[in-house]
Structures are given as C-alpha cells and as structure tokens.
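HUMAN: Mind sharing a backbone?

ASSISTANT:
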Amino acid sequence: MSDNIQFTVARLRHQVPAAELRIDDALIAVSSLMTSVVTARRDTPHVPAIRGHATIQRLAKVQSALVGASGDVLRIHGDLVGIAHETAGLDLHECPELAPAGLDRSPAAA
C-alpha cells in the first residue's frame, strides 16, 4: 500500500469516529437544552405555555436533524470500510474506538 493511501486511511480512521462522537455530543447538548427550555416553560408562572411552543418545536427539529446526521455518518463509515477493503486491501473487522488522550473507557477504569 502506498504511503499516500496509508496516510489517508490513518486520517479517516481518526476523523470518522471523531465526527460520530461530535454529533452525539451535539445531540446531548440539544437534548439538555430541550430539557431546560421545557422545565423553564413549566416552572414560569403567569406565562402562557404557547409562548415557548415554537422554540420547543425548533429544538425538536434540531434533534431530528442530528439523529438523521448521525445515521448518515454511520452509513458513510460503513461505506468507507467497504472502499478500504476493496481498494486498499485492508481487512478492517472492527474500527478503532476513539477516545480523547488520557481517557480510559475500559470497564476497569469505571
């Protein structure tokens, strides 16, 4: 395998899981925001519930878009694994897990 292909594979092995992780982080952030907005609407006296309804609908659309983006990136990941296997002769049974430096996600570390 040429150095250029090896470099490209190494870059994609990092970037694809990183994109998946960032989309999940965005979904968590938007979901947390949704919880805060709905809680604020419920807990704010003398303000009609309709006042925050449009905001909640927009947040729901954002959540839906992020779920869609997540599925698309997962499909892209699968496509790239297939391309790597077909064109570069790589045998990728499992993709490496992405973890920030110094973060041990093993069960023993929990």
